[in-house]
Write a structure and sequence with these properties.
Strand order of the largest sheet: 12-11-8-13-16-17-18-19
Strand content: 15-25%
Number of helices: 13
CATH topology of the largest domain: Rossmann fold
Bound molecules: cytidine-5'-monophosphate
Shape: globular
Distance between the termini: 25 Å
Number of strands: 19
Largest sheet: 8 strands, mixed
Helix content: 25-40%
Radius of gyration: 25 Å
Structural class: alpha/beta
CATH class of the largest domain: Alpha Beta
């Protein structure tokens, strides 16, 4: 189930040109199942209309502290007291200053003062205002009090200057909200999950490589799910066409040797390793320094050397739970079982390579020392989320 389902989120919107992006965020959160109560500051109404948010969230938009609904459901502190999370996006310098000063001169600041839920602030303002000593001090104060204050993105501002001050895009904001909710309530809160994804590319010369068809989809979807469940996630990814999941530390590598080095670093304090990458078994013995030229009709023989088996090389590391994968074309169970033993894994996830590579759906077979279980054929994003949940259950038993 989506972690946003049924969550009560207060979305504060301040008077910034970036307020239009909040409408997309309100819509996405609502579609994911959250109950979104939008609270606008007075200045926000100069940029966007309450009717927009009302239509997108299906709920009344609140703003005026003196004109709350009379049914008593929304007293001046009720919103904050009931919220699972309060997000302010965009947060202006003025509202950040008012929150830092502990003021409660409108419904948004009153809600924030009264809430004990996690608070996320996404500043958006002119770069000079963001870098002003007063704003810098206010942001530091809020962070010291436990608020999550995002760094604005760098780029072109509405007033045609470049700088740090842009509101991150709505999917980025949604990812940060999911991460924060996960850390507050999720089963992986406090855990570090390391996931490898995609295929490696082994250079032949400066422009060619040996690679495979792995899209990285499953690994990326598992990383997003682990984040939603509260984990700090490190995604070590081979080249893919996918955008890195929001609020996930993503390290991009190309070769198997680079992936091995990046994982060694990331695994220092890991609780779970999910080795989903399709690592090339072989690499060219030496990559040519210059582009290899064709000479007449002569063929070309490449000399390959084996890559290290990354996860098998970690067999002695018992301090984290190790999950491997086996994409097979024949004898699925026997081959996967063999790899579980040979590579010293705690769990292996097997699938039929032919029916899943390049396909939108996948069926999975889960094998550990407790036995065999299966997940039905379903879209890869759903399969990845269900698989992550199964991994979490086995990790909990492994630790016990
Ligand atoms: O032997 P096979 O490649 O099928 O094993 C699959 C599992 O081993 C996957 O979890 C894969 O990420 C991992 N692997 C590895 N290093 C390699 C090859 C595979 O860690 N060189």
């Amino acid at each position: 189930m989506d972690v946003l389902s049924g969550k009560k989120i207060v979305l504060g919107v301040c008077g910034s040109i970036a307020a239009y992006k909040a409408s997309q965020l309100a819509r996405d959160l609502t579609l994911a199942g959250a109950q979104v109560d939008v609270v606008m500051t007075e200045a926000a109404g100069r940029f966007v209309g309450a009717a927009t948010f009302q239509a997108l969230t299906g709920r009344p938009v609140l703003g005026d502290l003196w004109a709350l609904p009379e049914d008593g459901v929304v007293g001046h502190i009720a919103l904050g007291a009931k919220a699972d999370l309060v997000a302010v996006a965009p947060a202006t310098a003025n509202t950040i200053a008012r929150i830092a000063a502990g003021m409660s001169d409108d419904l948004l600041t009153t809600t924030i003062l009264a809430t004990r839920a996690p608070v996320l602030l996404a500043p958006a303002m002119n770069p000079l205002m963001y870098a002003a000593p007063a704003t810098v001090a206010n942001v530091a104060t809020l962070r010291a009090r436990g608020y999550t204050v995002l760094e604005p993105a760098v780029g072109r501002m509405a007033e045609h200057v470049e700088g740090r001050g842009r509101l991150p895009e709505p999917p980025e904001l949604e990812g940060e909200i999911r991460a924060l909710l996960g850390r507050a309530h999720g089963p992986l809160s406090g855990r570090h999950v390391v996931i490898s994804a995609g295929g490696t590319q082994e250079p032949i010369d400066p422009v060619r490589y040996i690679g495979n068809r792995s899209s990285g989809q499953m690994g990326y979807a598992m990383a997003a799910r682990a984040r939603d469940l509260g984990a700090r996630v490190t995604l070590v990814s081979g080249p893919t066409a996918l955008a890195p999941p929001a609020a996930v530390a993503t390290l991009r590598v190309e070769t198997a040797l680079q992936m091995q080095a990046a994982l060694a670093e990331a695994l220092g304090d890991a609780d779970i390793l999910i080795m989903n990458a399709a690592v090339a078994d072989f690499r060219p013995a030496a990559a040519a320094d210059e582009k290899i030229k064709k000479s007449g009709d002569a063929g070309l023989t490449l000399s390959l050397v084996p890559n290290p088996d990354i996860i098998a090389g970690l067999a002695g590391r018992r301090e984290f739970f190790k999950v491997g994968f086996a994409a097979e074309t024949n004898d699925l169970l026997a081959n996967a079982q063999g790899k579980l033993e040979r590579k010293g894994l705690d769990m292996i996830v097997a699938n039929d390579a032919v029916s899943s590579i390049g396909q939108p759906e996948i069926a999975l077979t889960l094998i550990d020392r407790g036995g065999v279980a299966s997940l039905p054929r379903q879209p890869k994003a759903a399969a990845a989320a269900a698989l992550l949940d199964e991994i979490v259950a086995r990790f909990a038993r492994w630790r016990a």
